[in-house]
Structures are given as structure tokens and as C-alpha cells.
Design a protein that fits this description.
The protein is mostly helical. The protein contains three helices and two strands; from the N terminus they run αββαα.
């Protein structure tokens, strides 16, 4: 059995500064230094896109998904299913 090298499918490289910029909490300074958060086993920090989606949900559609039969429940279920379809 021979080892096969796995090569990236694109030539783009990761830009840590660009990724870090997506996480608002990582813009903080702690003791004069940029925040470095190493407790991901406890809590994962959220990128702005996730924060925006949660704000939208909690301010417009906060209801039980796939159980409630009222308007908010139907909207929450539709939003949930739409996202599932995009990531599947």
C-alpha cells in the first residue's frame, strides 16, 4: 500500500487576518494585545454572518421549528429547511 499525497483543489491560501476579521469579538484588545481565544472546547466564537442570522431569527421568526402550526412556526420551519437545503 502506498501513501498518496492530498493536494489542495484550489490555489487560494488561507488568510488568517481575513478570517479573523469575520469574528467581531476577535477585534478586542485584552491587556493591550489582540484577543486570542483558545477555549473552543467550551464555546466557539461566532462570525458576523452567524450573529446576523441569529438576530434575524430572534427578532422575526423565534418559534419552534417543525412543531408549531402558527405563522411564526411556519416561517421558522421554512427558514430552517432552506438552510438545510443549501448546506446538504
Amino acid at each position: 500500500m502506498s501513501a498518496t499525497a492530498i493536494r489542495p483543489t484550489t490555489s487560494r491560501s488561507l488568510d488568517p487576518a481575513q478570517i479573523r476579521a469575520q469574528f467581531p469579538i476577535l477585534q478586542r484588545q485584552v491587556n493591550g494585545h489582540p484577543l486570542t481565544y483558545l477555549d473552543s472546547a467550551n464555546t466557539a466564537q461566532k462570525p458576523q454572518a452567524v450573529i446576523d442570522a441569529l438576530v434575524q431569527f430572534y427578532t422575526r421568526h423565534n418559534a419552534n421549528v417543525a412543531r408549531a402550526v402558527h405563522t411564526l412556526g411556519e416561517e421558522a420551519t421554512a427558514a430552517y429547511e432552506a438552510v438545510r437545503g443549501r448546506i446538504a
